[in-house]
Design brief:
single chain; 144 residues; mainly alpha; 6 helices; 78% helix; 0% strand; globular
Length: 144
């Protein structure tokens, strides 16, 4: 019997997954800000790139809680790469000069090594999603 009348256990699974994804997104943003606060140079830059893709993966899972780890990681990587390649256009550079938010989301300068670090972030996110996903998808039966 469901804990809340009228709510079946299958409805609770996506809610639990979305809650975990939202938490992961918050933790990822915190990790990125923390990394920027304590590190400089390549570590801060490329660690931030990887975390950017981890954040995108968490947002994919937030929107589509039943997505497979591979699809979530692939989607996050595809968006990361698309954003990086958009930096080759003058439009993105112009938008980034006008808005701090746009600069944070889209960046401003194409940097080929970023593509590799986005892959690192997608791989790390895939590992975490693969490890945690089955636990979050399990139905609670109410018994200990």
């Amino acid at each position: 019997m469901p804990l809340i009348p009228g709510l079946n256990s299958h409805a609770a699974e996506p809610a639990r997954i979305r809650l975990a994804a939202a938490g992961a997104a918050v933790v990822t943003v915190g990790a990125g800000l923390g990394l920027r606060a304590v590190a400089t140079g390549s570590l801060a830059k490329y660690g931030g790139d990887a975390l950017y893709t981890v954040l995108l993966l968490a947002l994919v899972v937030l929107v589509a809680p039943r997505v497979t780890p591979l699809t979530a990681a692939g989607s996050a990587l595809a968006v990361s790469w698309a954003v990086e390649f958009l930096q080759l256009s003058e439009m993105t550079a112009g938008l980034s000069q006008r808005s701090l938010v746009t600069r944070l989301v889209l960046g401003s300068t194409f940097n080929p090594p970023d593509l590799f670090w986005y892959g690192v972030g997608a791989g790390a996110g895939w590992l975490v999603h693969t490890a945690v996903g089955p636990y979050l998808a399990r139905r609670h039966t109410g018994s200990s």
